[in-house]
Amino acid sequence: MVQCLLIDKDPGERARLAQILSGLGMALTERALAGEGVAYCNDNAPDVVLMQAEGQDMEAQDFVRRVRRSPKTRKPVVILYAGAADTEVIGQSILSGAADFLMLPFDRDLLAFKLRQAGIRLA
Questions:
Q1: CA–CA separation, 74 vs 102, rounded Å?
Q2: What is the enclosing helix (H) or strand (E) of 15?
Q3: Model pTM above 0.90
Q4: Among 8, 64, 74, 87, which lies 20 to 30 A Cα-Cα from 46?
Q5: Cα-flanking dihedrals φ and ψ of residue 103, to 5°?
Q6: pLDDT digits 0-9 by tens, 32-51
Q7: Residues 6+ apart with CB under 8 A from 46
């Protein structure tokens, strides 16, 4: 089963995405803040991290760099999302190692496509 870490400050959006991810057959862990997500990734090895890039306790590209430097041998696929397009944040996040950057709102089909595109095998 694919292990996914979902990071989003908004409990409503987190619940919506958790339902989609669970429906895709993923085992899900949730955190509100990026700093909590880095700590989780340092202690665990999720296959995927899906994170809200806006309003976090660290910049999206810093999160990606820290997760990519995790002591775990397997590095997760990181997909970021936001409600507004900021080309600098998107570009820096991709250059730092994020697999993709999605704009809200997105649906189950688009998320499944992006996960498969990043090499994640879904149930």
A1: 23
A2: helix 11-23
A3: yes
A4: 87
A5: -105, 135
A6: 999 999 999 999 989 999 99
A7: 3, 4, 5, 29, 40, 76
